[in-house]
Specification:
By secondary structure, this protein is of the alpha/beta class. It is 26% helix and 22% strand. It contains 28 helices and 43 strands. It is globular. The N and C termini lie far apart (68 Å). Residues 837-1013 form the DNA2/NAM7 helicase-like C-terminal domain.
Length: 1076
């Protein structure tokens, strides 16, 4: 039977015989297209989503009575993606992110529209030359950023919109829609379930989509998001050539786009049918005339949604679960008016109990929602139990699929927790006061409770905000804290000072502004289609149960010298491994102050020297901009002629202080190059070495105009004329021109900027990166690391960091399952389990020998070596009274017992006024002998830090939290522990990694302010205090104040310290949870 005859017969069989025998009537009308295919008849339906019980009964009856030609798959028993779903049930699966006393926060795991064990469902992709037989013209893929993942198409006025599996690519910010495409191939026609939710303001976006012939021209993308899709009849299709010999009949939709991550079918010819929808219907008819001969190809269906909302449900809705349990929840969003709920949506209509709107809250919608939930199956739990050994338990492809499920579950969960803590409201207010500092501007504004009371808990934490004002460009700021004033909230924030001028600040005061907290951008996706045998494949297998990578035999070579710096033996070995093509990945396990920044920079320069012929690039990256700047400075220090490009986004340049910018920042250097070349073109156009093509000149001018760069330097009439006509530029062309001209050899940037840039305009240069060194790798989440290695599959990787210091940041109330799956501790696992070749940097240059020895015994198995050298700062410190405390025993850690001080609660954090006053006096005393920027006050608790930041604003003394001090150093550090209630080993302040960071930031002298009796409840703190006591550097705060205020007192006065001083016990009702 020909394809046209098959289509004709199928359409005839779908004709309406009479209303009583056919279930689809009245609500769904499809008018024939202008070019009517043979056998086309009108198709109607009489069942809507609102009539759920009627629809389910009819759909189930049709489903069960249909003549099946294949056996059901075992999907229900092997995966949670379609368990307990009926045909055409619109749903999205969610799992537990974390629990509160009242609610459970659910995060999306996977979304789909139609599914059950139907082997005839296939995912469809269009050929690049796919043809619309009614509306001539090919589909334009070229400009779409997700063109490799496109499987969706729907039309409006002949304009096509493409979407990808599991999400909708759209630009309309308020609408969250739920769309899909339906395809009919060789006689089987399906209609999509249309379920969507949007804000009341977006109701008018609901419209009927029509297909209008547009003539013989190329189709474009339609940028708005609409909730209705078109029905497509596919007349020609074939399996992909690469899959032709695969047994694709046995693949079901739940295999998630596989084989090997490819779509199953390619459509080469189709036509759209015009929709005229009265009510939204959900139907998946299964026709009785399916014959064995027509089994392949059969009905095709594309599925997916953008239901990315998080949900907060009452514990009474969900089964009783532990935080780490996987709770699978189907969320249904019926289209009804706000505030109403149909009586037909009763619990008995669902397979399991369903609850209604009053029991559920959705942060992004006012529409009712129905939920059914259950604990995940044992098979699903087994995937989560075995994922760490995935490549030992499963075959390679199944292992990657298991990792995809597990990692996406974790990352979605953590993102949902963060989103749930963001205040979604926008406030109109005024800046009440401001203060200009060296690097930042601090300002205050008041959020006034009107329609909504500002939630203090969501503002009394470090969060990014966007501020819009009519008198200047929008800018970003960081919230420092908030205090309640009745129903109002007074917020203190800071923004980089390079964003403002004094005039702008004066104008902003008492000017009406709009303030809103910023949501974290969704991170780049992990490309799980990892090439077999690539470096990325070897790395991922090694950390997930596959064979570990072994260190190759290396020849013994003399210690390397780079730019006058002679590396240690361990650093030399590390540089050797970086340059070895047979090493896919290595670990640079470091200690504090070991010169790892110098080792990374030296290794990059050494690799360039040994790899001059290939002309490949080195990449250095880190989590923070401060670490990136340190890498750039060290590279320049070692080789002033090295060609560096530091990638930083324009938005980031506006948010960071000037100290986080460099002379190598792209795109600033691009603007400078364009200006320089245009001046040459302008002045020397007659005898210039080479002429820039006019099209490229226009792009240069357009780029400068877009970035608000003046073009007044142009003199020639030709270029002045081109300025007026320069409207468009292609950043890829300009980037290619820049790279050809500058010929950089080292690319530097934060990990997130590298990911964003190389997923977009820098993508053509992925293959040019030979080595990627990651500084502070202990703070890189596993999800981010996987994104990086899969983006650069053939590069060699090096993870450098100290896993004995702070691990990646995570929300404290996240479950252990989410933290393990998305955050993890890759660096520690690789070292302790010997998964990757490792070099230990154990030479400490930063700290005095006694600090190195003490911390080495506590945290590094007594394996550190000191290479400390005195400097001018030490000579200056020797003049101050505080230095005399360590002169007899040469011990550079001084513990000041803050007897009589009391902790106070500020929200869920702590402050201590007496301790803060001692720190201020000490810092002022030290500043008489050394410059203020050499002094840092590091606080364990955020409230104490905020208390001291007010005092330090214009003094030039650094005040910050311990966590943010990781990776930094100062000549003198004053560490504030603040807590005076009893301390135990399992608490925030007793965390070994945090203590390690706090005490290893100083180059010369450490002062610890704390309550001796309180801290002695922790074994670690007791050991530190005991060492200070033996070294005669334990002093009571009152004695210490006398010493720094007098020139006559000396270290002998410490004998007056009464070790048995009794003080009042302070109750501690709950443990403080701090996070920065």
């Amino acid at each position: 039977m020909s394809s046209k005859q098959g289509l004709s017969e199928a359409l005839k069989s779908m004709s309406i015989r009479d209303d009583s025998t056919h279930p689809w009537h009245k609500y769904y009308k499809v008018d024939p297209p202008k070019k009517e295919p043979k056998g086309y008849k009108q198709l109607l339906s009489n069942c809507s989503l609102h009539q759920v019980q009627q629809f389910r009964n009819i759909s189930k009856k049709v489903w069960l009575t249909a003549k099946r030609t294949t056996n059901p798959s075992k999907t229900n028993k092997t995966t949670f993606l379609t368990s307990d779903s009926f045909p055409s049930t619109p749903f999205a699966y969610y799992s537990v992110a974390y629990k509160t006393p009242t609610f459970i926060i659910l995060t999306p795991v996977f979304n789909e529209v139609v599914a059950d064990d139907r082997l005839d469902l296939r995912i469809v992709a269009l050929n690049k030359s796919a043809c619309d037989t009614i509306n001539p013209g090919i589909i334009d893929f070229d400009d779409h950023p997700q063109r490799k993942k496109i499987i969706f198409l729907y039309t409006k006025n002949s304009l096509r919109k493409f979407k990808k599996i599991g999400g909708v690519f759209h630009t309309q910010p308020l609408a969250a829609s739920f769309c899909n495409i339906i395809a009919c191939a060789h006689g089987f026609c399906v209609f999509s379930p249309f379920v969507f939710c949007f804000f009341p303001l977006c109701v008018q976006t609901l419209s009927v989509l029509r297909t209008v012939p547009h003539g013989n021209r190329k189709n474009n993308f339609f940028s708005l998001c609409h909730p209705i899709g078109d029905v497509l009849c596919v007349t020609k299709l074939q399996p992909k050539q690469t899959l032709a010999n695969k047994k694709i009949d046995k693949l079901v939709m739940d295999d998630v786009k596989s084989v090997n991550g490819k779509q199953f079918w390619e459509v080469s010819e189709f036509y759209p049918m015009k929709n005229d929808i009265i009510e939204n219907v959900v139907t998946t008819p299964y026709f009785e005339n399916v014959s064995e001969k027509s089994k392949a190809p059969r009905k095709l269906m594309c599925v997916g949604s953008n239901m990315g909302n998080i949900f907060e449900i009452s514990e009474s809705v969900a089964p009783k679960v532990q935080v780490n349990d996987i709770l699978l929840t189907s969320v249904f969003l019926p289209i009804i008016k706000p505030g109403q709920f149909l009586s037909s949506l009763e619990p008995e209509h669902w397979l399991t109990v369903a609850k209604m709107s009053p029991k559920l809250r959705n942060s992004n919608s006012y529409l009712p929602v129905v939920v059914k939930s259950k604990i995940a199956s044992e098979n699903v739990k087994r995937v989560f139990e075995n994922y760490k050994e995935a490549f030992k338990v499963y075959p390679r492809e199944a292992a990657y699929n298991a990792l995809r499920i597990v990692v996406e579950h974790g990352s979605n969960g953590l993102r949902s927790i963060k989103d749930s803590k963001i205040d979604q409201h926008q406030y109109t207010t005024k800046i009440e006061s401001y203060k200009m500092l060296d690097s930042f501007v601090n300002f205050t504004f008041k959020l006034i409770g009107a329609s909504v009371t500002p939630p203090a808990v969501k503002w009394n934490r470090s969060v990014s905000i966007k501020i819009i004002s009519p008198i200047c460009a929008p800018f970003y700021a960081e919230v420092l804290g908030a205090q309640k004033h009745g129903v109002d909230l007074k917020v203190k924030a800071r923004a980089p000072s390079n964003t403002f001028t004094e005039n702008i600040l004066r104008s902003l005061k008492n000017q009406e502004i709009s303030v809103r907290q910023r949501r974290e951008m969704k991170k780049n996706e992990i490309d799980w289609n990892v090439q077999k045998g690539s470096n990325a494949d070897k790395f991922i297998q090694a950390i997930y149960g596959g064979p570990p990578l072994k260190i190759p035999k290396l020849p013994n070579i003399p210690r390397i010298k780079i730019g006058g710096l002679e590396l240690l033996e361990t650093q030399t070995r590390y540089a050797q491994l970086i340059s070895n093509e047979n090493v896919a990945a290595i670990i640079g396990s470091s200690s504090f102050g070991c010169g790892k920044t110098a080792a990374i920079a030296s290794a990059a320069l050494y690799a360039l020297k040994n790899d001059e012929k290939s002309k490949n690039w080195q990449m250095l990256t880190a989590v923070t901009n401060s670490a990136v700047v340190a890498l750039v400075e060290k590279l320049v220090q070692l080789d002033s002629n090295v060609q560096i490009v530091r990638i930083i986004t324009p938005a980031n340049m506006e948010q960071v202080p000037s100290t986080s910018l460099t002379q190598f920042d792209y795109p600033t250097v691009l603007c400078e190059l364009l200006k320089e070349q245009l001046i040459k073109e302008d002045v020397n156009s007659m005898n210039y070495d080479y002429e820039i093509p006019e099209d490229l000149v226009k792009q240069m001018l357009a780029y400068l105009k877009k970035n608000a760069k003046s073009t007044s330097f142009l003199k020639s009439e030709r270029l002045q004329r081109l300025v007026k006509n320069a409207k468009h530029h292609n950043e890829s062309d300009l980037l290619n021109y820049f790279m050809d001209f500058k010929k950089p050899t080292i690319i530097v940037g934060t990990i997130q900027t590298i990911l964003n840039s190389f997923n977009m305009s820098w993508r053509p240069f992925i293959g040019a990166i030979s080595n990627i060194q990651i500084d502070e790798a202990s703070t890189v989440p596993r999800e981010t690391l996987l994104q990086l290695v899969t983006l650069f599959p053939n590069s060699r990787y090096s993870l450098v960091g100290d896993y004995r210091q702070l691990s990646p940041y995570f929300e404290q109330d996240a479950s252990k399952l989410l933290i393990d799956t998305a955050i993890g501790e890759t660096l520690r696992d690789c070292v302790e389990e010997d998964l990757l070749p490792s070099v230990f940097f154990n030479g400490v240059f930063r700290c005095p020998p006694e600090i190195t020895e003490q911390l080495g015994k506590l945290f590094y198995n007594d394996s550190l070596k000191s290479f400390y050298r005195n400097c001018e700062t030490v000579k200056e410190l020797e003049k101050c009274s505080a230095w005399r405390l360590n002169c007899s025993n040469k011990f550079s850690t001084i513990f000041i017992d803050t007897i009589g001080s009391r902790q106070r609660y500020r929200g869920k954090s702590l402050r201590n006024y007496q301790e803060a006053e001692i720190a201020q006096n000490l810092a002022e005393h030290l500043s008489q002998f050394i410059s203020r920027e050499k002094i840092a006050i590091l606080c364990f608790y955020r409230a104490q830090m905020l208390e001291l930041q007010d005092w330090s604003e214009n003094r030039g003394i650094h005040v910050g939290c311990v966590d943010s001090g990781q990776g930094k150093e100062w000549p003198v550090c004053i560490v504030l522990t603040t807590k005076t209630a009893k301390v135990q080993d399992n608490q925030f302040i007793s965390n070994a990694r945090r203590i390690n960071v706090a005490l290893s930031r100083s180059r010369h002298l450490n002062f610890i302010l704390g309550n001796k009796k309180s801290l002695s409840g922790s074994d670690l703190w007791a050991s530190i205090i005991g060492t200070c006591k033996k070294s005669n550097t334990l002093v009571a705060s009152n004695v210490f104040n006398e010493i720094i205020n007098s020139d006559t007192n000396s270290a002998e006065d410490l004998q007056d310290y009464d070790d048995n001083f009794e003080e009042e016990e302070v109750d501690d009702d709950f443990e403080i949870i701090e996070h920065e």
